[in-house]
Amino acid sequence: MCSKKKKRILTGDRPTGRLHLGHYVGSLQNRVNLQYKYDTFLIIADVQALTTNFEQPEKLSEDVRQVAKDYLAVGIDPEETTIFVQSLVPEIAELTIFYSMIVTVNQLKRNPTIKSESAQYGYDDMTYGFLGYPVSQAADITFCKAHLVPVGEDQLPHIEQTRKIVRKFNQMYATVFPEPEALVSDFPRLVGLDGQSKMSKSLNNAIYLNDSRKEVKEKISQAVTDPARIRIDDPGHPEVCTVFEYHKAFNKENVKEIEENCRGGKIGCVACKKQLDGAINDFLDPFRERRVKYINDPSLVDDILISGTRKAREIAGETIAEVREAMKINYFNE
Ligand code: TRP
Questions:
Q1: CATH 3.10.690.10 fits 8-190+298-326, yes or no
Q2: Ligand 1 centroid vs 292 CA: distance in angstroms?
Q3: Nearest CA to 47 among 70, 82, 13, 71?
């Protein structure tokens, strides 16, 4: 199908390290499917990563490539999806500045995600860049006139902010942008190995997409199970067991049998974990296979990012021209 007829999607991530199974279940898997139906853009939002990691910008060079490799490993196809680097599209920064004139500080201060993140990071005196990152995210979404933005719930206030900006811009200057819509993922969050919170890098409870077979095995062997089970024949309670949660996600065929055996005290946690690490490793194997080529030749990853970014810039240039025309600040090519 001609890509011009497809609706456009933009989504992405802050590059802050390796991606894990929680990312896969919550968003990557969905993106892999969506890329065939939509004209898909994936932003590696390195400038946004600086809002919290401004003290170590030197980490970005590796983290950007890490995220790209994780995308490619899970099956994001660079023929279908334009993967690009935010800071290399200066038009996004330019749009951010224009938008910042039509966003109020109070709107940003009321944003619930900004509020909870700033509490989480302990920012009592937030930087301008952190407070304003939803404005930059609006520029990420609109530079390519995206129609749909697949995101988790926590991102909804940012999409709402983007829609406000678009409405105001279109109404005040000229209709340049479609009003983007969030496509909220309805996949439940994957719990972390500690069984306490969602899987997350900062909580050190994650299985990474590039973990080795051995690492997966070790991590699963330490995962929290039903604390009421001491002996093998004690009846288990799968509903409180982290390992069971993972069986549900990665070992669907055997989940019924495992549940029965656990409740009946017929399978011990060690054997149950062994089945699980086998299932997760089988699940990760195709990603490992796809990754090999990029590890052997890292220039392939760079080439994909360079050409994706070139394409993003071309589109961004056209959009900026329209924006300047709408705002009547295209002084010398009126
Ligand atoms: N804020 C998103 C996150 O933390 C990452 C992101 C940056 C993004 N720009 C975006 C997501 C544009 C969707 C659209 O996960």
A1: no
A2: 28
A3: 13
